[in-house]
Amino acid sequence: MIRETKAAATAEAESPLSLKRRARRMGRILAETHPDAHCELDFTNPLQLAVATILSAQSTDKKINEVTPKLFARYPTAAAYAGADRAELEELIRPTGFYRNKATSLIKLGAALVERHDGEVPGRMTDLVALPGMGRKTANVILGNAFDVPGITVDTHFGRLVGRWRWTAETDPVKIEFAVGDLFEKRDWTMLSHRVIFHGRRVCHARKPACGACTLAKLCPSYGTGPTDPVAAGKLLKGPRVAELAAAAGVPAP
Ligand code: SF4
């Protein structure tokens, strides 16, 4: 079956309007494909999300969620992190990797929050990125998920996928954030981020993307990067909704 589409064949010459239309169509398919997309870090307030997001660098959300219940109980406030016993804090977060650097970040974050924001996590980008250990990616996660302020989270999945989709040729995360932001309504940014990341985790893997079992195949200029055979591709699908993902792509359940 010839899957390559006009959009794919003419990707080099795609006008900004065609790109926006194709991106939004893909965004709608992503919404149907991943209705369960959400922030996978467990948290109940902005401070917990800030801490979990800092810990998530070079780790998995699953690992972070194993560590955070004890951590959040032990350090319920910014002041508690500021005054933490370093050895004890390091021990609690050790399974997340890079625990010495992360402990430093958490202690400094706690101190800065107490000093500058009465112990509260601020809900503005300019204030967030001025905090220790906080880049735009972390800030966007916090804004989007704890404050309902739309944000695009450019992690490795996001960067890889939007490159494959030729939504942008940028490689710098901040430039990617702005380029993709231009393609979508602001109100859609946060959920779009979750859906793209879910697609990266479950379908469009770094090595061997499941092209033959992908709902975006018809609109993706990189179709064929991974196996196109439906059975072989179906086996590459990951996560708890493998059967639904296969059905959505019209291929046999693996
Ligand atoms: S899995 Fe293949 S077809 Fe689907 S988005 Fe990734 S590269 Fe494109």
UniProtKB/TrEMBL annotation:
GO molecular function: 4 iron, 4 sulfur cluster binding; class I DNA-(apurinic or apyrimidinic site) endonuclease activity; DNA binding; DNA N-glycosylase activity; metal ion binding
InterPro entries: DNA_glycosylase (IPR011257), Endonuclease3_FeS-loop_motif (IPR003651), Endouclease-III_FeS-bd_BS (IPR004035), HhH-GPD_domain (IPR003265), HhH_base_excis_C (IPR023170), HhH_motif (IPR000445), Nth (IPR005759)
Domain of life: Bacteria
Record keywords, A-Z: 4Fe-4S, DNA damage, DNA repair, DNA-binding, Endonuclease, Glycosidase, Hydrolase, Iron, Iron-sulfur, Lyase, Metal-binding, Nuclease
Cofactor(s) in the UniProt record: [4Fe-4S] cluster
BP terms from Gene Ontology: base-excision repair, AP site formation
Enzyme class: lyase
EC number: 4.2.99.18
Reactions performed catalytically: 2'-deoxyribonucleotide-(2'-deoxyribose 5'-phosphate)-2'-deoxyribonucleotide-DNA = a 3'-end 2'-deoxyribonucleotide-(2,3-dehydro-2,3-deoxyribose 5'-phosphate)-DNA + a 5'-end 5'-phospho-2'-deoxyribonucleoside-DNA + H(+)
Residues that bind [4Fe-4S] cluster: 204, 211, 214, 220
Entry note: cofactor: Binds 1 [4Fe-4S] cluster.
Domain HhH-GPD: 55-202
PANTHER family: A/G-SPECIFIC ADENINE GLYCOSYLASE/ENDONUCLEASE III, ENDONUCLEASE III
Entry function: DNA repair enzyme that has both DNA N-glycosylase activity and AP-lyase activity. The DNA N-glycosylase activity releases various damaged pyrimidines from DNA by cleaving the N-glycosidic bond, leaving an AP (apurinic/apyrimidinic) site. The AP-lyase activity cleaves the phosphodiester bond 3' to the AP site by a beta-elimination, leaving a 3'-terminal unsaturated sugar and a product with a terminal 5'-phosphate.
Xref: NCBIfam families: nth (TIGR01083)
Entry similarity comment: Belongs to the Nth/MutY family.
Protein name per its UniProtKB record: Endonuclease III
The species this protein was found in: Actinocatenispora sera
Source organism phylogeny: Bacteria, Bacillati, Actinomycetota, Actinomycetes, Micromonosporales
Gene: nth
